[in-house]
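Retro notes (design track)

What went well: tokenization of the new backbones is finally stable.
What didn't: we kept losing track of which sequence belonged to which structure.
Fix going forward: every design gets posted as structure first, then sequence, in one message. First example under the new rule, 369 residues:
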């Protein structure tokens, strides 16, 4: 059983000596720190020759008492001297509570940190886009390095496997657009214009936009999680060691798959949304399907289709780059995989909406409205 820590005071001319004994560990100190604090007389030294064992807490207790009494420490073995020297190096006051910062300063600081992080992320995405272009050029120069099997597999994961959820989402969105639009147009006796609303909105905006959001949440997050896990398990470092470029083997197939599949998924989403809108028009507004599609052909210009098809691959590039970039930034631990995956989805959706706003202004300037 460990011997409890104890002390004995010996009086001498010019100052006393405090002799400590027993185990100076957190489990055996008991009231020793309070007894040391109660000593106020002149002390020449603290003798540790009777100490059997000492841990960091015991070393800190001895060091604090010696500093307060202004005396030396004697009789310590090599381990005790090393512990006391270590705790003396970090002998600085520690704030139990952080310094007070006004709410205004805290808010401004957080905004500044967010702006700096956004700028760094944007620069990182631009640099990653450049690396992707370099990898693409290398593959064009050396077609044998193109991994067709990886691209086809991503076609299935990004496109074919997503048909069900994208179709269901689009069908319901078409119903919602038709229902809400017909309610408002009924006030003016123009329920027939619901067809215009459904056709133009789905082909031009919502079809490709909702598809991009769904692909970002489904495939962009998967890219970030997959590459992040590969970074943690050092698979990417192993690929570099054996002379395989991760940009060509991992990033390029995923980017190409999303870029190719996004126009197809966007067109598919628009068609299904129109079917949903036509279904509600037939049930609620008693507009026959033949009338619905004839009217649709009259009011929807071909430019609306081109607008959606032009935006789709750009959205695909953004989604793939955001997912792969965030996955390649994982460095520390498994928790960072989740954080980077969340960042990939948020950044992809945010950038898609921003680019969509620029496209809206640009196509209006071209007269495609």
């Amino acid at each position: 059983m460990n011997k409890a820590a104890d002390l004995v005071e010996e009086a001498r001319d010019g100052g006393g000596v405090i002799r400590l004994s027993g185990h100076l560990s957190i489990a055996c100190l008991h009231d020793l720190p309070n007894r040391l604090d109660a000593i106020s007389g002149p002390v020449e030294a603290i003798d540790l020759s009777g100490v059997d064992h000492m841990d960091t807490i015991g070393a800190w207790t001895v060091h604090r008492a010696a500093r307060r009494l202004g005396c030396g420490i004697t009789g310590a073995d090599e381990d005790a001297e090393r512990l006391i020297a270590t705790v003396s190096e970090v002998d600085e006051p520690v704030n139990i509570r952080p310094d007070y910062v006004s709410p205004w300063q805290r808010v401004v600081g957080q905004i500044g940190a967010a702006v700096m992080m956004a700028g760094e992320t944007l620069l990182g995405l631009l640099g990653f886009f450049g690396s992707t272009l370099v990898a693409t050029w290398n593959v064009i120069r050396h077609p044998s390095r193109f991994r067709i099997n990886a691209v086809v597999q991503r076609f299935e994961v990004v496109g074919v496997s997503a048909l069900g959820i994208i179709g269901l989402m689009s069908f319901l969105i078409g119903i919602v657009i038709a229902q809400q639009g017909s309610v408002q147009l009924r006030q003016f006796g123009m329920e027939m214009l619901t067809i215009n609303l459904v056709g133009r909105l789905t082909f031009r905006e919502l079809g490709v936009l909702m598809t991009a959001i769904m692909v970002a949440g489904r495939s962009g997050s998967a890219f970030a999680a997959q590459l992040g896990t590969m970074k943690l398990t050092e698979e990417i470092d192993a690929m570099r060691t054996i002379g395989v470029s991760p940009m060509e083997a991992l990033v390029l197939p995923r980017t190409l798959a999303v870029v190719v599949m996004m126009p197809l998924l966007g067109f598919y989403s628009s068609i299904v949304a129109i079917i949903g809108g036509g279904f509600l028009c037939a049930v609620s507004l008693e507009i026959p399907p033949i009338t619905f599609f004839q009217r649709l052909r009259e009011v929807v210009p071909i430019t609306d289709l081109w607008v959606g098809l032009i935006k789709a691959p750009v959205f695909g590039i953004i989604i793939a780059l955001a997912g792969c970039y965030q996955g390649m930034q994982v460095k520390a631990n498994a928790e960072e995989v989740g954080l980077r995956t969340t960042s990939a989805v948020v950044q992809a959706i945010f950038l898609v909406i921003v680019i969509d706003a620029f496209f809206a202004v640009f196509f209006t300037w071209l007269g495609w409205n």
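Added context from the reviewer: The chain has two domains: 6-89, 120-366.
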